[in-house]
Amino acid sequence: MNVHPWNRAVWAQLTRMRHPLPHALLLHGMAGIGKRELALAYAQWLLCERPGEQGGCGTCRACAWIRQGAHPDLHWVEPEETEEGAEETDKARRARPIIRIDQIRALIEALSLSAHQGGWRLALIRPAEAMNPAAANALLKTLEEPPPRVMLILISHQPRRLLPTVLSRCHKFALPRPDWDTALAWLRAQGVAAAEDTLREAGGAPLLALEYAQPERLERRGRLLTALAQPQRQDWCELAEAMKNAPGEVWDWISRWLSDLLALQQGLPSRYYPAHTAALQSLARRTDPARAWSLYRELIAARRHLAHPLNAQLLLESWFLRYASLEDSL
Ligand SMILES: [Zn+2]
Prior knowledge:
By secondary structure, the chain is α/β, with parallel strands linked by helices. The protein has 16 helices and five strands. It has helices at 8-16, 35-47, 61-67, 91-95, 101-112, 133-144, 164-167, 180-189, 195-201, 206-212, 215-229, 236-242, 247-265, 277-285, 289-302, 312-324; strands at residues 24-28, 74-77, 121-125, 150-156, 171-174. Zinc ion (ZN) binds at residues 48-50, 56-57, 60, 62-63.
């Protein structure tokens, strides 16, 4: 389990803590920077039979179990996929993944048994803000009076959504935004060709950028950006049909594209797609800023319905056709 280069300072802080270790940690920071990997590396280091400065040895029985995702004293708690049920009629609730009270009860039960290997018993809760209030309250008792040699590691990119009573009982580690050059070098070392582009699109989060760099996704993005650059030469209905399974991606791209276009109209540089500045400039000159703003605002308002659009294809079509009508709207 490797610690990412931009997280080494926090790693050093973690491994420098001496006994008695805190019973609850909170690792927080933006999404896509390796919080999960850091938490797992630390758990491995605690459970390893021969831990070194850099982490677990990688060869002992504990390390092998962790590699297989099967260490009996390491418990992951993450939102479970839920079937649509009677209590799940509210769309907004379905859109957000939830850690439920029965998952926390099962965890507490597991942690009350003695350790299989006589060492630490660890729970990794991710993302911690997914705990609903009942789940968070159920966890509080364990946070207040943890069994000996139990450590809870909470992972969160929205710590403000955690109950104050939970927050106050955790030893907090803030993972910084990765340094741009370090992140870029790492991304290139993973064999990502358009590293700078994808890292910018991911807001500087390298693991998110790595996800963004999947060839199929890059192909879809290229296709959409080409269409946005030449709005009059597209079959927008066909494009909406082709992209209807990924309305969130389309939303990301088209809203960033519009944001760049609006920036250029105000004499600012493009932020997301500098490689397309020429096409954006040309469009910016031929587009009425008020109408571009109006479409941009409409997109922002549509964001929260994206997880479960009634008809994604129709939604995309309506965005595309309005976008195409922007050109020569002066
Ligand atoms: Zn080991």
